[in-house]
Amino acid sequence: MKKHVQLLIALAVLVVLIGLVFLLERDPYEAPEKPDFANLIPAREEGSLDKIQVTNNEGSITVEKRGEQYWITEPKEMKANESSLKTAFKTLEEMAVVDLASKKKDRQKTYGIAKGESDYLEIKAFAKGQEILNFAAGKRSPDYKGQFIRLASKPDDVYVTDKAMPWLFKREVKEWRSKTLVELPREEISKLEWTTKEGTMVLEKGEDQTWTRAGETNWYADGARLNNLLGVISKFNWAEIFDEANAATDYGFEKPQAVVKATAKDKSIVLTFGKDLEEPKGNVWVKLEGDGKVYQARKYQLEKFTKEFSYYKGEKPQPTAPDAPAMPSMPPAAP
To answer: What is the rounded CA–CA span in Å between residue 85 and residue 168?
Structure first.
């Protein structure tokens, strides 16, 4: 055997031996150092984001935070659902990258990060006009706690976040809207008036906070049942919304089941309840005076006003007993 061949074999054996030495010296329980993903996305303080833009399979939606309120600005300006948007902004402010899933671009479809995939989302977030986040999101991570994302700054890589995107991000714009049709401070409501097939009922709140039927000083409202009624009208939510009325649809507003008027200080609202719907069952048509849109509400909301008027009659409230005077303190005992 030639001498240079022997040298090559010797070198190969030496390399193998050195590798074995390193393997034997390494602690088998020593965990490999985990990459630091903290610098992949900018730091965000709580309450710092003021605008988000989400593109899903239904279209593109933009929401801005104005003070403590949230407004949809695209596709058109509408009041947004406060609780849902508060959660959405909080998620984007707290979200962190915790792992790398893949560096192979051709595998992104596997993670749902490809246009046309049912889970695909494009998300941007801003603070004071500056873009802070820009990424695409796909499927949930295997533990369902996080989500696979692709950062605009790292278009070939797929990462895993510690938080999943809010369910709202995949919904149409209607689901982003505020569902509150009427909002009145309950303590400021001073008069309720509603008309049904039974006639007209008018309840008024006196200076002593006692509710009586108008013109009948001895007709007192039942406290608990009145509170349920005030609860429905002080924050009245819709179930469906239609921005324009359809001339071919008979909503039943010409012969309403009930017309309800509530007065709080200098503000009054009037709701007109039309026909029940066959589908979806349990809904009823409703409109708000001065509002060109048409709504559906849940039947149970109407039923509060179609009960017999006597249902709301109660006993005269008992006067609250004055607080008992404090007992005089006794002088300390003589030593």
So the answer is: 8
- Phi, psi for 111 (deg, rounded to 5): -95, 10
CA 143, CA 146: separation in Å to the nearest integer? 7
Contact residues for 192 (Cβ-Cβ < 8 A; gap 6+): 201, 202, 203, 229, 230, 233, 260, 261, 262, 263
112's tokens? 């749902």
Burial of 167 (0-12, 13-18, 19+ CB in 10 A): exposed
- Tens of pLDDT, residue by residue over 155-176, are 999 999 999 999 999 999 999 9
- Which residue, 121, 142, 131, is CA-closest to 44? 131
H runs (alpha helix) in 235-326: 299-306
Burial of 147 (0-12, 13-18, 19+ CB in 10 A): buried
Cis peptide before 280 (omega within 30 of 0): yes
| Alpha-carbon 149 to chain mean position | 22
Neighbours of 96 (CB within 10 A): 14
**Crossing angle, helix 223-234 and helix 299-306, to 10 degrees?**
140
Give yes or no for a cis peptide into 75 (omega within 30° of 0).
yes
pTM of the model: 0.74
Cα separation of the two ends of the chain: 117
Ranges under pLDDT 70 in the chain: 1-8, 10-34, 319-335
- Please tell me the distance from the alpha carbon of residue 48 to that of residue 44, in angstroms, as a whole number: 6
Rounded CA-CA distance 317/194 in Å is 23
Q: What would you report as the CA-atom Rg of the chain, rounded to the nearest whole angstrom?
A: 33
Those residues whose C-beta lies under 8 Å from the C-beta of residue 65, and which sit 6 or more positions away, are: 49, 50, 51, 85, 89
